[in-house]
Amino acid sequence: MKDLPLYEQIADQMHEQIRNGVYRSGDKLPSVRSHGKTLNVSISTMLTAYGLLEDRGLVEVKPKSGYFVKAHRTQTLPEPKFVTETVSPTQVTSLQRVMEVLKASADPGNISFGAAVPAADFPALTHLKSLFAQKARQGTFMGVGYDSVHGNQPLRREVAKKAVEGGVYIAPEEVVLTSGCQGGIALCLRTLTQPGDIIAIESPCYYGMLQLVEALQLKAIEIPSDASTGMSVEALKLALEQWPIKAIVCIPNYNNPVGALMPDDHKQALLELANYYDLPVIEDDIYGDLGYQSRRPRTVKSYDTQGRVLLCSSVSKTLDPQLGIGWILPGRYLQQLQYERFINSVFSLRLQQQAVAEMLAHGGYDRHLRTASEAYKQRRDHLLDLVARHFPKGTRISTPLGGFVTWIQLPLHIDATRLYLSALAKGIVIAPGELFSTNPSKFRHSFRVSYAEPWTPEREKAIATLAHLVAQEQ
Ligand SMILES: Cc1ncc(COP(=O)(O)O)c(C=O)c1O
């Protein structure tokens, strides 16, 4: 950086600001004169710096108005296409690769697009840390003894308040706090199923769900998903006609691993099927607060008049998975779930619960959601551009409207597991398609990318390297 001419250093810094969403499409850059004054450089240096941004296609000049950030997305690729037939229920076997990907993703020496972890560059997270420090100083979380078996009441109240945005009206007493969303789904499945039971899941499916299916000795029937509308309700209907399914598990809002958003009429149709077959629906809404549109999507639970939907969520994607704070809105299964929670663990994470309750109540959580969602949208757009620019013809990619994961489908003959291994050898982590099905070859030519992290030249280069590795496989 030091060896670069001054105008190029300034252009790079501004480029970074645009990449990170500080300046968004349509925003005006600071004027040449005022920015030059701030940086103590001449107007001509500033003009050359902004000219360079213009050459890079990032900004445009509007006569007499100044420099404006251009709309980022310049190229588009088609959506992934999934096979539509449903196969028989299958037992999940070893998921060793999941552990390997998670370990490699956590290695700071690697550039990771692997694990679905939120970015850590938002001011709200600093505020959360200060809330922790404050609570720790106050010592209110100390004191020997167990909390209420149902968990921290202020947090339950905040969860009940937030639920209204997804169209759900419940009392705080109807909230069961859990250890993360995964812990919540596990409790639901333990309560509702026996080993050997069949449950309906999405395909491709979040690997944590497959791990649970394996651990609880269930059988999964994989219901095909659409890249933009999620689980196929038509295919679910056929599966329900054919198999004695005990529960439906779905991620209707910005699902993992594709980022699909189920339309409201599909949500209603799914619920009608559940009503008809008298089945519980476990709705994972962990990404629901991270939409890029102004209206938060409704939940399946918001249409539920019979209390059969158990909505599970957490702050793992909105704040930090290490907090371990999740919840279930279990509807008619409340008492069973409370009992299951009690026999699984009696303690609660008092400090975390207090800090998160405070964050939700007065700590700017909603503002943080707006900032994070806007940043993720920008980061998605940048990824879509990079993939369109570097990857070979025949590549498909989903365009999530929320969350921070997307699905890349390579031309059929390319093996994403081989790509994963050769990328890993170069310190780049992706989540290969084999992790997302009971059948490891089903998504062999696809992989999931997590784009939460801010873009840096290294991360951009890593995408080009991935594309280069794909080209070598051609
Ligand atoms: C769809 C989905 N559900 C649940 C989880 C797990 O959430 P938690 O970390 O809160 O247990 C994840 C994490 O990747 C996820 O993507």
Automatic annotation (TrEMBL):
- Single GO term (MF): DNA binding
Query: What range(s) does the HTH gntR-type domain occupy?
Result: 4-72
> Superkingdom, according to UniProt?
Bacteria
Q: Could you tell me which InterPro entries the record lists for this protein?
A: Aminotransferase_I/II_large, HTH_trans_reg/aminotransferase, PyrdxlP-dep_Trfase, PyrdxlP-dep_Trfase_major, PyrdxlP-dep_Trfase_small, Tscrpt_reg_HTH_GntR, WH-like_DNA-bd_sf, WH_DNA-bd_sf
Q: Does the keyword DNA-binding apply?
A: yes
* Residue intervals passing through the bilayer: none
Q: Does the keyword RNA-binding apply?
A: no
What keywords appear on the UniProt entry? DNA-binding, Pyridoxal phosphate, Transcription, Transcription regulation
Q: Identify the SUPFAM superfamilies for this entry.
A: PLP-dependent transferases, Winged helix' DNA-binding domain
Q: Pfam families from the entry?
A: Aminotran_1_2, GntR
Q: Which family does it belong to?
A: In the C-terminal section; belongs to the class-I pyridoxal-phosphate-dependent aminotransferase family.
Protein name (record): GntR family transcriptional regulator
In its UniProt entry, the species of origin is given as: Oleiphilus messinensis
Q: What is the lineage of its organism?
A: Bacteria, Pseudomonadati, Pseudomonadota, Gammaproteobacteria, Oceanospirillales
